[in-house]
Write a structure and sequence with these properties.
- By secondary structure, the protein is an alpha/beta fold.
- Helix 1 crosses helix 2, helix 4 runs parallel beside helix 5 and helix 6 runs parallel beside helix 9.
- The strands form two sheets. A ten-stranded mixed β-sheet has the order 1-2-3-4-7-8-9-10-11-12.
- The longest helix has 15 residues.
- About 35% of the residues lie in helices and about 20% in strands.
- The protein contains twelve helices and twelve strands.
- The radius of gyration is 21 Å and the shape is globular.
- Strand 10, helix 10 and strand 11 form a beta-alpha-beta unit.
- The structure holds S-adenosyl-L-homocysteine (SAH).
- The site of S-adenosyl-L-homocysteine (SAH) has 16 residues, from strand 8 and strand 10.
Length: about 350
């Protein structure tokens, strides 16, 4: 676990673990629940009003409270989407995006500083992976946003920077903490975890008994195309990936959703759509959904997005072939809300 201060990382602790910590610094056990609830709201230690001054001083000197610092905040004039650049205590930066939908708010969180997966279209992986985030640093993004906005975070998507299943233990701990009723209490059914397809970890996740929605970044219907776009496919090909998705559905009863980013000239023809429908139906034999994403162009990659008409035709072709599909709405298009781009800009300026 990353820890530069050598002090207990209290925001990564469950309420039960916190009891041990508060006792170790001479406080009563029941204070742990109060502390847990304050941290879930992103409250600075000095504002934890039902804790004594001496307890707060002890927290400041003896605990490591991993609340990220808001380094930059961009608000979309179009739809109110807020993009945050958050600084972690060692100076690493990650991004979080807060979105408003009709049915509630949703926060996109990062799980790693950078990413090792090497997908060819993605800004987050251009400089590789620096490190995993701790559970507290993932949770801290949600806490910092709810403190900053004063709004409740209703749902979470793990679609920010990083590959969540490449930081498995911290992500599982985060899921347990964020869904704990004594803290944020965000229902696991309101949480989506997106993966590029680390197959063994999908099987592990299915065994955890955590009913999160699994989102799988597919982006191609044949191995040749997927190999070229996503290096992970050379290790776990489409057939193996779909087998794991089917197992996830059978074990959890949760509908799996697929992400498919449309890239001009790479994966966006009518034939690709027909092929995709057939591969998914054969592989899944279960309810599923395809989210079509318009590529967010990242200058360094040289890849171009598909035009709207072609995207609509692609969606129609999937539907015609019996696969549920929607084109994802683009929120925050005026603030570059796709993850990875703000962090990259910052790295480039340094
Ligand atoms: N590592 C995870 C989650 C992070 S990315 C994963 O691969 O699923 C969230 C989604 O955005 C993924 O489907 C990813 O492939 C997609 N994505 C990445 N860069 C993109 C870009 N430039 N334009 C559109 N979608 C992109």
């Amino acid at each position: 676990m990353y820890n530069s201060q050598n002090k207990p990382d209290i925001m990564s602790m469950t309420p039960e673990e916190l009891e041990g910590f508060v006792e170790s610094i001479g406080e009563k056990k029941f204070r742990a629940a109060q502390l847990f609830s304050w941290m879930a709201k992103g409250t600075p230690i000095d504002e934890m009003s039902n804790l004594s001054k001496s307890f707060r001083e002890k927290l400041k000197s003896e605990a490591d409270y991993r609340l990220p610092k808001i380094e930059k905040k961009l608000v979309s004039a179009i739809d109110g989407t807020i993009k945050y650049l958050m600084a972690l205590e060692d100076g690493e930066c990650v991004e979080s995006v807060f979105m408003h939908y009709e049915h509630g708010t949703s926060l996109c969180v990062s799980s790693q500083a950078g990413c090792a997966m090497g997908c060819k279209f993605c800004a987050s992986t251009l400089r590789g992976k620096m490190r995993n985030l701790t559970a507290s640093e993932i949770l801290g993004q949600a806490a910092a946003v709810s403190y900053d906005t004063g709004e409740r975070v209703d749902g979470i998507v793990m679609m920010g920077i990083g590959e969540p299943l490449d930081n498995y233990d911290n992500v599982i701990r985060f899921l347990k903490l964020v869904s704990d009723e004594r803290g944020m209490g965000i229902g696991l059914r309101h949480i989506s975890l997106s993966t590029c397809g680390l197959v063994p970890k999908i099987y592990d996740l299915a065994e955890e008994g955590l009913p999160v929605t699994l989102s799988v970044s597919l982006h191609a219907a044949d191995d040749e195309t997927r190999d070229a776009l996503m290096p992970v496919n050379k290790k776990y090909n489409i057939a193996k990936l779909l087998e794991a998705c089917r197992a996830y559905f059978l074990k959890t009863g949760r509908r799996v959703s697929f992400e498919y980013t449309l890239i001009s000239g790479k994966n966006d023809t009518k034939e690709d759509a027909v092929h995709l429908a057939s591969v998914i139906k054969k592989g899944m034999r279960a309810p599923c959904h395809v989210n079509l994403i318009m590529l967010n162009e990242v200058a360094e990659t040289g890849l171009k997005t598909t035009d709207r008409a072609r995207a609509r035709a692609f969606a129609e072709e999937l539907q015609k072939n019996g696969v549920n599909a929607t084109i994802r709405r683009r929120l925050g298009s005026d603030i570059n809300a796709s993850c990875g781009q703000l962090r990259l800009q910052k790295l480039e300026n340094e």
